[in-house]
Amino acid sequence: DAGVTQSPTHLIKTRGQQVTLRCSPKSGHDTVSWYQQALGQGPQFIFQYYEEEERQRGNFPDRFSGHQFPNYSSELNVNALLLGDSALYLCASSLAGTGRDTEAFFGQGTRLTVV
Amino acid sequence: LAKTTQPISMDSYEGQEVNITCSHNNIATNDYITWYQQFPSQGPRFIIQGYKTKVTNEVASLFIPADRKSSTLSLPRVSLSDTAVYYCLVGDFTGFQKLVFGTGTRLLVSP
Fold first, then answer.
1. Looking at chain B, which residue has its C-alpha nearest residue A32?
2. Do A33 and B102 touch (CB under 8 A)?
3. DSSP-assigned letters across all residues of B42-102
């Protein structure tokens, strides 16, 4: 049973460019959340997708957008890249609902470097 | 979401027991306490979750006093591979819960 997979693992982009990161959730999970982790900091919530819609969003500008596909996989898009967007981007999947068996599983992340 | 406070760093030696305490004075009645472990360049990994008293699994124990304003993650007989950042989170942890991470506790285990 594959866990959460993210691609690519590393990426280098130039300021002003656009980037797309991809995530496949753990089998059986239907909710995908994205986090940004700067060096030395804890992960910060970007947004969450469920049923192909953005369900909630953290304090990130509109340059950050996403999408969820019918197979529950997800993409994170960042436009007009800034040097400060350099970070580890993490995808977490979970199962929607109010039960206790809704543990979030994280992927290994995509290391984005903006130069 | 309740804010958490934990030590920035801790040092230990192989074979010792490590206890990391987290303060969460404003924890709500419905909130659970969850600990995650993160190795460099990897995503956080769930360790343990509890509501009150004591919870134990194959990896760690979690001690929660009656007032629930703090909790202690206990790692028995640590090894070098336990060197990581440990995060304490508080929330209801339903499927739609967004996780709020602090800066965590950086544990360094030496030989």
1. B96
2. no
3. S--EEEEEESSEEEE-SS-EEEE-TT-SEEEEEESS--GGG-EEEEEEEE---TTPPP---
Q: Say what the pLDDT of residue A99 is.
A: 60
Predicted pLDDT at A101? 54
Does residue A55 sit at the B interface (CB-CB below 8 Å)?
A: yes
Chain A interface, best mutation among B30, B93, B99, B106, by max A CB count within 10 A: B99
Taking the Cβ of residue A28 and every Cβ of chain B, the question of whether any pair is shorter than 8 Å is answered with no
B99–A109: do the CB atoms touch at under 8 Å?
Answer: no
Q: Give the per-residue pLDDT at A100.
A: 55
Q: Which helix (H) or strand (E) holds A64?
A: strand A64-68
More confident residue, A101 or A16: A16
Q: Do B41 and A109 make contact, defined as CB atoms within 8 angstroms?
A: yes
Q: How far does A37 lie from chain B, in Å, by closest CA?
A: 10
Helix, coil or strand: residue A83 = helix
Q: Do B95 and A98 touch (CB under 8 A)?
A: yes
Residue A69, pLDDT score: 97
Region of residue A30 (left: phi > 0; alpha: psi -120 to 50; beta: else): alpha
Query: How far apart (Å, rounded) are the C-alpha atoms in residues A7 and A11?
Result: 9
- For residue range A31-87, what is the model confidence (pLDDT) as tens digits? 999 999 999 999 999 999 999 999 999 999 999 999 999 999 999 999 999 999 999
- In chain A, pLDDT over 90 holds for what percent of residues? 86
